[in-house]
Amino acid sequence: MPDASHHVHLVSDATGETLTSVIRACLVQFEGVPVVQHRWWLVRTRGQVDRMSEGIRRHPGLVMFTVVDPEIRQILEERCRELGVPTVSLLDPVMDALSRMFDFKAHRQPGLQHTLDEGYFDRIDAMQFTLALDDGQCLDRLSEADVVLVGVSRTSKTPTCMFLANKGVRAANVPLVPGMDPPKELLAVKGPLVVGLTRDPRSLSDIRRNRLRLMNEGRDTTYAELEAVEREVADARRLYTRMGWMVIDVTRRSIEEVAATIVQRLHPERVVDL
Q1: How far apart are CA 11 and CA 63, in angstroms?
Q2: Residue 203 in 3-state DSSP?
Q3: Which helix (H) or strand (E) holds 52?
Q4: pTM for this prediction
Q5: What pLDDT digit, counting tens, does each position of 62-78 carry?
Q6: Max CA-CA distance within the chain?
């Protein structure tokens, strides 16, 4: 590891999802700064803290943690004080504020957000549904979806559906194929929210060209030609307008941002953790 690198230790008594999201959101604001992340997940015993402490001793740096068990947390903080490294508890400000508002003491039990509750099984069901209806499969079941994504090739339909499914949203997607009419089942669907995805033609052409290169596809094809892509995108936009579907341009949006926009329209009154 380069000596100029800054070391950050992420310590969690669960899967580390919260820490991973926060550090990613923060580090993008420090572009060019070399950072080595050390991830210590499922830290729930004194022995695990001791092993983690040895890693911090070898590579001193900021310790960010989400540890709710008071005993394990105390040991962790003592070890960090002995090593002279700074610590940040991500959950403290929120937990303290909620405790004051609720006038209720937190349980301080690790891993509660990952219990096998009804929401967990809803997510499993949504994932199975989305896999079954990926890429225009099982069109007769479109009415069972919460949302149907429509778009030409390489507009992030499948990854967006998978992300939504992981949050419990039953998502299907239907591709628009040049020279073919949209499926009649899609045009007739009434219940689900239908979202048309679009992308800047030049950007889409570049993505398709890279796709062909990765697939070692050398035969003549209009798949990535800019003029052909422009026609596809224009035809898709006309279809969206004619059908009155919601439209999202994914050119400069991440999958997470697209999913958040969809959920906000799908359930404006419902809070969904994205």
Answers
A1: 7
A2: helix
A3: helix 46-58
A4: 0.71
A5: 999 999 898 999 999 99
A6: 69
